[in-house]
Design goal:
Helix content is 45%, strand content 7%. The protein is mainly alpha-helical. The protein has four domains: 15-143, no CATH class; 166-268, DNA polymerase, domain 1; 281-439, Orthogonal Bundle (hpI Integrase, Chain A), CATH 1.10.443.10; 488-528. Helix 6 packs across helix 8 (228-245) and helix 10 (296-311) crosses helix 14.
Amino acid sequence: MSRSYRGVRPKTHRVYSVQDVLTLYDISRNTVCNWVRGGLVPVDKQKPQLFRGAELARFHADRRQERPKLRSGEFKCLGCKAVLFPETTTVCFQTSSKGEMFANATCPDCGASLMKRLGKTEYDSIRNCLDTNTSLNSIDEELGARPACIGTNQAKPAQTQPSPNDRLIRDWQDYAGRYTEKTVDAHLAAIRSFEAFIQLKSFSKVTTDDAAAWREDVVSSGGGGLSHSTIRHRASHLRAFFEWLGKEAGFRHLAPVPAYFELPRRFHQKKVSKSREYPTLDEAEEILDAMPTKTLKDRRQRAIFAFAFLGGLRADALITVRRRHVDLARRQITHDGEEMRTKNGKSFVVNWFPRTEHFRQVFIAWFEEGTALGLQPDDALFPDLASLSSARRRKKDPIAPMKTIGAVSEAFKIASKNRATAYSPHSARHTLVQLGDQICRTAEARKAWSLNLGHASEEVTWRYYGKVDDGRKREIFEVFEAAEPSTSDELELMLAYHEHKLMRGTPEFEQAEVLVFARQQERRWNDQR
């Protein structure tokens, strides 16, 4: 069966072991060996072999590149679209009725049949490889010494620039296995950025001067357009990396380096934050009603939008929900940290939020449509369209959730198409926090609301989501000006006064009497206005 690796995207900054490559591309060790013989360059000549993600991407892009003419001994696979040198054991010859010579072979990657018309010279070269049991790439002069680049039409570098730090970075990746994929990627971006700054100098030779020079460059250039938050995180990631490296055998001399990544205090000062844009629940309902419903994709996008307001899940968690995680009868969602892409691997049960009846109708309609299409409990709640269309005919494993949040982002983009504000998937959580602020009347209710959003405490909810924008702050202070508000302690004291729970002559009684009198005077003044 033919295959294509276009959908496989190795991460540029990562270092992959042979086993990682086997898993990423779902191939055999022989295929990796063929790739190395065909031009894939390991990070060095040591064993076991390691490969840069950037080099894997370069190698496959080069193989897919259309060439006006194949090199000697090279075949183009029409199955996986790769340009390659097949194994000599699969090569055989045949002659047409017109006397033309052809070579047949098998693609080492996807197993498809290969065919190439040969000239006399190429036929002799391939025949010689078969007779001497040598690889076909040995006859290609272009894989030998490259000619000097003379003139203006110089060739681009064929390989990624080798780094002496790749094995160290691979060791750090093993150590960083406790982090999420996004966190590892962020750390690696910072490490590779610093590596480029010191011009691929070995990390074992890094000095405090190098770290200080990086810091001064960031301070003077403003990080090349990066935000203060990004710069702070990169400095933190570099400090953490060199703290780890300084504890490894042979690198103890690096112990003073981490402190030199500390940024000036002004980089830690919070700037005036922009108010987050999010719709009210009524506005979200209007947006939902305006979304198209004609095609299967339209209905999936509409259901994704509705589900975001129904359960308040983050985009990564939302797209990895399986149908069995949803309990329609109990109106609950199992937020499974082991099976879903969740923040910090949290597992808890989400109750559908109140006041979301309109969203429920749309989501339940989608769930029932999925059942009619043949989706099973273990299938993704929001599968890709190809799997969704063929769900009834398949006899394979359950349909896996999509690997990215692209479908969620697209759903919100479509929803915001004719709106003045483009809402993000995370805006649904802000809408729900606003709703909770309006309807939660007790501390216990606020606590339950926060837990339903996946927050460890209500403090997290109101610190990061319950922001008061400038407009709302102005309204609140206008109320302060109109009437001096009472604190909760003062309200409790006045209530006790009216219920005759205070003893006359005590300080509490006298204070309550003053408060009650002031409140009565205020009401009379308001009535006279």
